[in-house]
Design a protein that fits this description.
It is a single chain. This protein is α+β, with helices and mostly antiparallel strands. The chain is 39% helix and 30% strand. The protein has helices spanning 2-17, 26-105, and strands spanning 114-118, 125-127, 134-135, 139-144, 148-149, 154-156, 161-172, 179-183, 186-190, 200-211, 216-221, 227-229, 236-244. A hairpin with a 4-residue loop joins strand 5 and strand 6 (154-156). The termini are far apart. One of its GO terms (cellular component) is extracellular region. This is C1q domain-containing protein. It holds the Pfam family C1q. Residues 1-22 form the signal peptide.
Length: 245
């Protein structure tokens, strides 16, 4: 609009100051005015073209800003997952160290029973929601005494005794996250987290149970529950014999 006003003022200025304007014939004046009108139209088209390009640049800038925001969000999520993974790895290392100490301190000839496993033995796995809620931990780190069955996910106590059992669960916010430690079909302890606005959740729990030889201990999902695991070992199940009774 400002460009149109400038062009019209320029044209009027030319009309009033151009030498010999009063001596021209009507036809010549009409042709001259037509030229000026065409010139103004050309300027208007150029202005529209510039405005269109500006709108395109604005749209491109908006998309670029949105992309930057998404990259920033994803980086923050990755940093959070790295910290959670470091915490899980620390807890797993502590459990393995404890198992090693118990092995070293075990009396000669006494039963040596310990196991540790994670859910995924390759790639990534999302378990649940499902009708068969039993969790089968396929990646076996240790299984001294062969009490744990990686085909069923069940640890069967070889002898009467007090057993230390622990587990960790990891999942995303779309479903209930957590699992239940079962003994002979009866719930013992659990982890649990409702769907929430945060991206992911992890938790762990542990207990000392008195088991008789042949008692079965295993993990189950909550109703509508889901857990996640990959080769980083986010979802795990471990246990060992503290001492026979």
């Amino acid at each position: 609009m400002e460009l149109k006003v400038v062009c019209l003022l320029t044209l009027l200025g030319v009309l009033f100051v151009e030498p010999g304007f009063g001596q021209r014939g009507d036809i010549e004046m009409i042709e001259w005015l037509k030229d000026k009108v065409e010139f103004i139209k050309t300027l208007e088209e150029k202005l529209k073209e510039v405005e269109g390009r500006q709108n395109g640049f604005d749209a491109l800038e908006t998309k670029l800003n949105a992309t930057v925001d998404e990259v920033t969000r994803q980086k923050a999520e990755m940093d959070k997952l790295k910290k959670e993974n470091e915490g899980l790895r620390t807890r797993l290392n502590a459990t393995e160290e404890e198992v090693d100490k118990l092995k070293q301190n075990s009396a000669k000839g006494g039963p040596q029973i310990a196991f540790s496993a994670s859910l995924a033995n390759f790639g990534e796995i999302y378990k649940g929601p499902c009708t068969d809620k039993a969790l089968i931990f396929k990646r076996v780190f240790s299984n001294t005494g062969n009490g744990y069955d990686p085909n069923t996910g069940i640890f069967t106590a070889p002898v009467n005794g007090l057993y230390f059992l622990s587990f960790s669960t990891y999942g995303y916010n779309t479903h209930v996250m957590g699992a239940i430690l079962m003994k002979n079909g009866v719930s013992q302890i659990s982890t649990y987290d409702d769907p929430s606005t945060d991206g992911s959740d992890s938790s762990s729990n542990a207990v000392v149970l008195q088991l008789d030889g042949g008692d079965k201990v295993y993990m189950e999902l909550w109703d509508d529950g889901r857990v996640f695991d990959n080769m980083n070992g986010h979802t795990t199940f471990s246990g060992f014999l503290v001492f026979p009774v």
